[in-house]
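Project outcomes to date are best conveyed with an example. Our students and postdoctoral researchers have been running inverse folding experiments weekly, and each run begins with a structure described purely in tokens. The record below, which covers 272 residues, was selected by the lab manager from last quarter's runs and is presented without edits.
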């Protein structure tokens, strides 16, 4: 599923296209997403200009005039697509179409786990995201507070990295890669970490997210940027979906296990 780098890549592309532009028309399919715009909200959108586009965790936030917020989550297979009007060809899973003067932005989601809904004001926005944790790429944060959060839990490191109340935007792929970069065993309990290990984990998470963002995210199954460009970070995976890794002319086995219903890839010899 799209994670923080894929969402950020989408936003960076769309920002230059839609900021200050007026939404002329919005259409939705009859199929239901995990959370949908309602009919009253649909009628409020045409004629409104987009003020800005940004990200909170793995959500895309589009602020429109009068301080209302379109909130989009790409779910498991969703993406936003950009088309010049005369080049648009509809697809089966196009669920929301925003029409502008010269282009369209289309929300496509084959598995329909995505969300496309509205929050009516900044207070609703704040309440909706009040339980989310630190964004390593955007927030000012305290390493000590992250250490204390992890120390007060007793869950596996892999589970903790997927917990959006601690760190936001890290999904399964980047948790695997960050834990390998930090040389930490994904099965270790959070309350066993030293301060130095937590600092290294934070650095590794940040490194992996930035490297993926630099490479346009990961395109394994469904993800493409709005103009159809594939990400390339999957070419740099060290452990995810691998069976071995070569370091300094030595080969190390990569083991696959299942944690909380998700696949985990790690090197038992290298991750302590």
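After processing, the design step wrote out the following sequence:
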């Amino acid at each position: 599923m799209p994670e923080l780098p894929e969402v950020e890549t989408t936003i960076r592309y769309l920002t230059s296209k839609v900021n200050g532009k007026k939404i002329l028309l919005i259409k939705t399919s009859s199929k239901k997403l995990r959370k949908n715009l309602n009919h009253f909200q649909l009628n409020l959108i045409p004629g409104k200009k987009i003020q800005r586009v940004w990200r909170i965790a793995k959500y895309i936030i589009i602020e429109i005039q009068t301080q209302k917020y379109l909130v989009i989550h790409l779910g498991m297979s969703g993406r936003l697509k950009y088309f010049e009007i005369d080049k648009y060809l509809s697809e089966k899973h196009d669920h929301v179409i925003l029409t502008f003067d010269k282009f369209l932005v289309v929300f496509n989601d084959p598995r329909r786990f995505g969300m496309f809904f509205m929050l009516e004001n900044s207070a609703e926005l704040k309440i909706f995201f009040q339980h989310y944790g630190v964004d390593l790429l955007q927030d000012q944060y305290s390493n000590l507070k992250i250490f204390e959060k992890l120390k007060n839990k007793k869950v596996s490191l892999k589970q903790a990295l997927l917990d959006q109340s601690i760190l936001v935007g890290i999904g399964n792929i980047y948790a695997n890669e960050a834990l390998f970069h930090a040389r930490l065993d994904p099965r270790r309990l959070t309350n066993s970490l030293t301060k130095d290990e937590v600092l290294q984990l934070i650095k590794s998470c940040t490194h992996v997210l930035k490297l993926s963002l630099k490479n346009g995210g990961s395109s394994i199954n469904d993800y493409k940027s709005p103009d159809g460009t594939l990400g390339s970070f999957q070419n740099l995976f060290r452990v995810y979906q691998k069976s071995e890794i070569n370091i300094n002319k030595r080969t190390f086995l990569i083991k696959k296990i299942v944690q909380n219903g998700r696949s985990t890839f790690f090197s038992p010899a290298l991750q302590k």
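Residues 195-214 form the longest helix (20 residues). The radius of gyration is 20 Å. The training component of this project remains on track.
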